[in-house]
Write a structure and sequence with these properties.
The protein is α+β, with helices and mostly antiparallel strands. It contains five helices and eight strands; from the N terminus they run ααααββββββββα. It has an eight-stranded antiparallel sheet, with helices on one face.
Length: 185
Amino acid sequence: MKKLTLKMAATVMICGAFLFSSCVGSFGLHTKLSNWNQNISNKFVNELVFLAFNIIPVYGVCYLADALVINSIEFWSGSNPMASIGDVKTIKGENGNYLVETLENGYSITKEGEDVSMQLIYNAEQNSWNVVADGTSAELLKLNNDGTAQMTLPDGGDLTVTLDTQGISTARQAVMTDSYYYALN
């Protein structure tokens, strides 16, 4: 009886994995970080780096960057922008095509046929993601040491969210609400 229950549970789990999967992206940045961490040295050093990266929260930052930016680019373009540094991908947007170049510390985004570009840059010293356009830098997201992130909203206000599913949901709702409000006015 126990063998039948175990086989049934395994079958249900496998079928559920196929039935309830979705296209949320490959989480390329987080995967690259995990692979790098697993190949540093022996298992004890790997574990210490893993724990440190969870305390700092490097893993949380990578996950948030993947969830909010990289996976969205991958979803709309059909390819992973984390494939390699220097690669340029064409992404079709509402207002035309955009060229996204993967930089060592972020991304450069240019509308096709234009010379003006915008960069999304990670500042390791400040532990923040910034947008740089026309020589001006503005902070988009700052990762705090307490496991939260402080976002700058379109209206100039700040929102502090946790680095988990609930925090990402709150961030998306706040950005969408602000964007909708500004589109109406």
